[in-house]
Design brief:
Blueprint: H1 9-18, H2 24-66, H3 68-93, E1 105-106, H4 113-126, E2 134-137, E3 142-145, E4 160-164, H5 165-168, H6 173-185, H7 193-210, H8 213-222, H9 227-276, H10 278-307, E5 310-311, H11 315-330, H12 346-350, E6 355-356, H13 367-377, H14 395-409, E7 418-419, H15 422-436, H16 464-469, H17 472-475, H18 478-501, E8 509-512, E9 515-518, H19 522-558, H20 560-598, H21 605-630, H22 633-637, H23 641-651, E10 658-659, E11 662-663, H24 665-707
Parallel strand pairs: 2-4, 5-7
Antiparallel strand pairs: 1-2, 3-4, 6-8, 8-9, 10-11
Helix pairs in contact: 1-4, 1-9, 2-3, 2-7, 2-9, 3-9, 6-9, 6-10, 7-9, 8-9, 9-10, 9-13, 10-11, 10-13, 11-15, 18-19, 19-20, 19-24, 20-21, 20-24, 23-24
C-alpha cells in the first residue's frame, strides 16, 4: 500500500535552516522602515487624539466661560467635532480586516484523519503553527488567511487554511503537498522568520491603508448633506491628512520591500520543491492551470444552465470530465488517476500576458522562471500519484456540499430542475465543438479571429518559382501560429499599457516581462510595444495575402470554376464580417442605453428622456439592419425558431419605449435579448462559413498535390 504521508522532515527542515537571502541587509532595512512607520503611526494617533480632546475640552470650557446661551452652538460644535475625530480615527486606524469568501464551508478535521496527519507533518516541516480552522471553497487555490488588525502586529493570530476543492480535483498527493508547502513557506520559521514576519506586516499595512471600510463609511457620511455631514467633512480633512502621510510612508516601505519580495517567493518555492520534489513541482503548477480553466468554465455555465432549469449535482465531477476532455484534445494522455500528463512547450500553448497587475504587498516570479528554478534544484522525491482526494473521507459528500453552497451564493433556487449528468454535459459540449471546429491541418491559424480584408476579386496568382518556395505546412507551421498568437497577445498588452498611461486603469505599479515598473513608465513601454505590434500586424496581413494567393493559384490550375468558388466563399465571409461589426457596434450602443435607463430609477421623466430617445434611435437602426441580416441565405437558413418568433414579434412593435411617462420594460428587454441572440447567431454563421471555406482549401490542396 502506498504511503500517503512519507517522512521528509529532515530534508525540508535543512532547506529552511540553510535558507539565506542575498538581500538580507535589505530585509533588515525594510524592517527598520516598518518600525519608523509605527513610530509615525503612534505620533499621528496621539496628535489626532490630542486635537480631539482639545476640541471637546475647548467646547466645554467655552460654554462654562461665556455662559450657556451665548456659547451653546460653537461649544456643542467643538464637542461634536472632537467626538467625530475620535470615532472615525478609531474606525480608520484600528480597522480589522475581515477576509470574506462567501463560498467557504468549515471542515471538521476530526472526520478526516489522513488529511489531519498530512497537515500536521507538513506544519512541522515548514515550522509554522497548525491552522486554527480549515475551510473548503470551490476554487483552484490554497491560502492562509487571518483577520488582521493593528493589534495583530504585536501578537499575530493563528492563520486559517482555505483549501480549494477544484485544486484537490486537479492534482495528486505529491502535487498537493508541494502547493501547500509553498503557501506555508510564506510564514515559515527558522532563518525565514524575519522575512515571513515582514511579509505579514506588509500585507497588513496594505489592507489597513487601501482596503479600509472605515474610510469609505466616512466618505458616505460626508456626502450625506446633513449637519453631521458638515462635521464629518472637517473630520475627513484631519483623517485624510493622516492617511496621506501614512500612505506616503508605506510607499517608501513598499518600494524597498519589492527588492526582497521576490526572494521571499523563491524561498517559499525552495521549501515547496524540497518538500515534494522537482517532478511534482513542475506538474503541480501546470495541472493547477488546467484545473482552474475547467473550474471557471463550470462556474460560468451554472447560471446559464439554471435558466434552462438544469443543475449540476456535483460540479467537481463536471470539472473532472472537462479536464479529461480538454487534456485529450490538447495533451493527448492521462495518467491512471485521470489527471493530465503535461509535457512539451507548455507555456507556449498558454501564452500568458506580458503585463501583470499585482497587489502592492505581493510580488511573484512568473511561471517560466519558477519552472527553471525547479529544474535547477533537481530534487528527486518519491512521486505519490494517487489523487489528492485519497486524503479526504467521504469525498463525494464534500463535493456535493460545496456544490450546493455555490448555488446558494449564486441565489439559484433548487425548484423545478433536472440534473445535468457530467458525461452528458461534456458530450453535448464536444458535439458543439465538432460543429464549429476548424480542420486541424491549419493548426488554429484561423481560430478566433477575422479573415483579413483582401480585394479577393483582384487576387493575382503566384509564379511557378514562387510556388516552389511555398508549402501548405510552411504557411501554417506551428511556429507561424505561435507568432500570430504572440501578436494578438502583444496587441492586448499594448492596450493595457495605454490604459495605465491614461490612468483609465488605476495602479501604482505593473510588471512587464517579469520586471516591475512604476505606472509613469507605461507610456514609454507602450510606444515601443505598439511599434512592434504594427510591424507584426503588417507581417500577419502579408502572410494572409500570401496564403490566399497560394490557394488561389492551386485552384486556378485545377480549373476556373474552383478558383471562382474559392473567391465567392471568401468574399461572402468578408461581407458577413462587415455586417457583424455593424451589428456589434449597435448591440453595444443598445446595451449602453438600456444600462443608463435601468440605472436612472431616481430620475424624472424629463431627465431620463434623452436615454429613451437614444434607445429609440438605436432600435430604428437595428430594425433596418435586422431586415438586411435575416434575409441573408446562410443566416435565414439556420435561424433558430425561437429567435425567428422573437424577431417577428419585435418587428410589430412601434419602437416607443416610453408610453405616458411609463417605461415599457418588456419591449426594452425584448430588444436587448433579440440583439444579443442575433449577434451570437451571426457569429456562429460566420464560423460555419469559414469552416466550409477551409474545407474547400484542403480539398483543393489535396487534389493539387495529387495532380502534381
Amino acid at each position: 500500500m502506498t504511503n500517503l504521508n512519507p517522512d521528509l522532515r529532515a530534508d525540508t527542515a535543512r532547506v529552511i535552516s540553510a535558507a539565506t537571502f542575498s538581500s538580507r541587509q535589505q530585509l533588515i532595512k525594510v524592517f527598520g522602515y516598518i518600525i519608523l512607520f509605527f513610530l509615525l503611526y503612534v505620533a499621528l494617533v496621539f496628535t489626532a487624539i490630542a486635537l480631539a480632546v482639545g476640541c471637546i475640552a475647548g467646547g466645554i470650557a467655552l460654554m462654562r466661560y461665556y455662559g450657556y446661551f451665548l456659547s451653546v452652538i460653537p461649544g456643542v460644535a467643538l464637542i461634536v467635532l472632537g467626538c467625530n475625530i475620535l470615532y472615525f480615527l478609531g474606525r480608520f486606524l484600528f480597522h480589522r480586516s475581515q477576509p470574506v469568501n462567501p463560498y467557504r464551508l468549515p471542515l471538521d478535521l476530526a472526520a478526516h484523519p489522513k488529511l489531519t496527519k498530512f497537515l500536521q507533518q507538513l506544519v512541522e516541516e515548514t515550522q509554522i503553527r497548525f491552522p486554527r480552522k480549515v475551510f473548503l471553497v470551490p476554487d483552484v487555490s490554497i491560502s492562509l488567511f487571518y483577520h488582521s488588525s493593528f493589534f495583530n502586529l504585536f501578537w499575530p493570530l493563528r492563520k486559517n487554511l482555505e483549501i480549494g476543492l477544484g485544486l484537490v480535483n486537479s492534482v495528486n498527493i505529491s502535487e498537493f503537498r508541494m502547493l501547500l508547502a509553498h503557501e506555508f513557506g510564506h510564514f515559515s520559521g527558522g532563518s525565514m522568520r524575519l522575512g515571513s514576519y515582514v511579509y505579514g506586516l506588509n500585507k497588513l499595512l496594505h489592507n489597513m491603508l487601501y482596503e479600509n471600510d472605515g474610510w469609505n463609511d466616512m466618505i458616505r457620511h460626508r456626502q450625506s448633506g446633513s449637519i453631521s455631514g458638515f462635521f464629518v467633512h472637517i473630520t475627513c480633512w484631519v483623517i485624510s491628512s493622516i492617511q496621506v502621510l501614512l500612505r506616503r510612508s508605506y510607499q517608501l516601505i513598499n518600494r524597498e520591500y519589492q527588492q526582497v519580495s521576490r526572494d521571499l517567493e523563491l524561498q517559499a518555492d525552495d521549501i515547496a520543491v524540497h518538500a515534494a520534489g522537482t517532478a511534482a513541482a513542475l506538474s503541480a503548477i501546470r495541472r493547477a492551470d488546467i484545473g482552474s480553466y475547467c473550474m471557471d468554465h463550470c462556474l460560468h455555465k451554472m447560471p446559464e444552465l439554471y435558466d434552462h432549469k438544469q443543475r449540476f449535482q456535483n460540479i467537481f465531477k463536471v470539472q473532472q470530465q472537462l479536464i479529461r476532455y480538454y487534456t485529450l484534445q490538447s495533451y493527448a494522455t492521462l495518467d491512471t488517476e485521470g489527471l493530465p500528463v503535461v509535457t512539451g512547450p507548455y507555456h507556449k500553448a498558454l501564452l500568458k500576458s506580458r503585463v501583470q497587475l499585482r497587489h502592492d504587498w505581493a510580488f511573484q516570479p512568473n511561471a517560466e522562471s519558477r519552472e527553471d528554478r525547479y529544474l535547477e534544484a533537481g530534487v528527486d522525491k518519491e512521486l505519490i500519484t494517487e489523487s489528492a482526494w485519497r486524503l479526504f473521507s467521504n469525498a463525494e459528500q464534500l463535493q456535493e456540499e460545496v456544490t450546493n453552497r455555490v448555488y446558494e451564493v449564486l441565489t439559484l433556487e433548487t425548484v423545478d430542475f433536472d440534473w445535468m449528468c457530467p458525461q452528458r454535459y461534456v458530450t453535448e459540449l464536444e458535439q458543439r465543438h465538432r460543429i464549429y471546429e476548424f480542420p486541424k491541418a491549419f493548426n488554429d491559424y484561423y481560430d478566433n479571429r477575422a479573415f483579413t480584408h483582401i480585394d479577393i476579386r483582384a487576387l493575382q496568382p503566384l509564379t511557378t518559382e514562387e510556388m516552389s518556395r511555398i508549402s501548405f505546412m510552411g504557411l501554417y507551421h506551428p511556429e507561424v501560429v505561435l507568432r500570430m498568437r504572440t501578436y494578438y497577445r502583444d496587441y492586448q498588452d499594448s492596450e493595457t499599457l495605454q490604459a495605465i498611461a491614461l490612468q483609465q486603469l488605476q495602479t501604482p505599479h505593473f510588471e512587464f516581462d517579469g520586471k516591475r515598473y512604476r505606472a509613469n513608465k507605461a507610456e514609454r513601454i507602450a510606444r515601443k510595444l505598439t511599434t512592434h505590434v504594427e510591424q507584426e500586424q503588417q507581417w500577419l496581413a502579408a502572410n494572409d495575402v500570401l496564403a490566399c494567393r497560394y490557394h488561389y493559384t492551386q485552384a486556378l490550375r485545377l480549373g476556373a470554376d474552383r478558383a471562382g468558388e474559392m473567391i465567392l466563399q471568401y468574399q461572402q465571409i468578408l461581407d458577413y464580417q462587415r455586417d457583424a461589426v455593424r451589428l456589434s457596434d449597435l448591440v453595444i450602443r443598445v446595451i449602453h442605453s438600456i444600462s443608463l435607463i435601468f440605472s436612472s430609477n431616481s430620475y424624472t421623466v424629463d431627465v431620463a428622456m434623452p436615454f429613451f430617445e437614444a434607445l429609440t434611435a438605436d432600435a430604428v437602426e437595428f430594425r433596418k439592419l435586422l431586415l438586411h441580416v435575416i434575409t441573408c441565405p446562410t443566416v435565414a437558413l439556420n435561424l433558430p425558431q425561437d429567435i425567428k418568433a422573437s424577431i417577428e414579434h419585435f418587428r410589430l412593435h412601434k419602437g416607443d419605449f416610453l408610453q405616458d411617462g411609463i417605461p415599457d420594460y418588456v419591449a426594452i428587454k425584448e430588444l436587448h435579448d433579440i440583439s444579443s441572440s442575433l449577434m451570437e447567431h451571426l457569429n456562429n454563421c460566420i464560423i460555419l462559413l469559414k469552416k466550409n471555406y477551409l474545407e474547400l482549401i484542403l480539398e483543393i490542396d489535396a487534389r493539387y498535390t495529387v495532380s502534381e
